[in-house]
Design goal:
By secondary structure, this protein is α+β, with helices and mostly antiparallel strands. The protein folds into 2 domains: about 1-140, no CATH class; about 145-195. It is about 35% helix and about 15% strand. The chain contains 6 helices and 8 strands; from the N terminus they run E-E-E-E-H-E-E-H-E-H-H-E-H-H. Strand 2 (about 25-30) and strand 3 form a beta hairpin. The radius of gyration is 26 Å and the shape is elongated.
């Protein structure tokens, strides 16, 4: 049993920002005051719990998808240590689907682990636990601004990564050039040049 990561249909496709329902109390709990306009929502009010498996034509059957067996998720950090590529037809049934880029925060994983049911090897987080999770939800305009800023930061990170890769390539080329000149004796004066000096 594991997880398959479904590729997104478009590069920047996102789940729609959801802001619906009547205003909830402006406190996430007794100690946290939310900013004006924010609401406390339950996951079941804004997200589908246990969505159906992807249809058989969601991705071509022979298309490789990332498959994450449970043993490939570090128990402490939650990071994926050894993802695998498998064809969609191999993993479509019996695996939980996530979209590329989905994230589950460490604090959420830790709390969910404390509420698991079942026996060792078959432990699961109950759907009702997931449905009742409360979280602060900003107004739709603020959600869009958050996404805009995150996209800008990712674009900056992509540019920085490209610059590092270009600089690394230049260093490798310069290193090869210097070594080639050294082996040809072009970096130090020759005996003839020293005799003329």
């Amino acid at each position: 049993m594991g997880t398959i990561v479904m590729p997104r249909k478009r590069k920047n496709e996102r789940q729609p920002a959801i802001s619906r329902g009547a205003a909830a109390p402006q406190r996430a709990d007794a100690a946290t005051v939310l900013p004006d306009g924010w609401f406390v929502r339950r996951l079941k009010d804004v997200w589908r719990i246990n969505p159906p498996q992807p249809s058989s034509d969601a991705v071509p059957a022979s298309e490789p998808v990332t498959y994450v067996p449970m043993v490939a998720v570090d128990a402490i950090s939650g990071t994926i240590t050894e993802p695998q590529l498998r064809t969609f037809s191999e993993v479509r049934k019996g695996s939980t689907s996530f979209a590329e880029g989905d994230v589950i925060q460490e604090s959420f994983r830790r709390d969910a682990a404390e509420n698991m049911t079942g026996s060792v090897g078959q432990k699961r987080v109950p759907a009702q636990y997931m449905a009742d999770i409360e979280f602060p939800l900003p107004p739709l305009a603020e959600q869009r601004e958050i996404v805009r800023r995150i996209d800008a930061l990712f674009a900056l990170a992509d540019k920085s990564e490209a610059r590092v890769q270009a600089a690394t390539a230049r260093v490798e080329k310069i290193t090869k050039t210097i070594l080639a000149k050294a082996f040809r004796g072009e970096l130090v004066p020759t005996d003839a040049e020293l005799a003329r000096a």
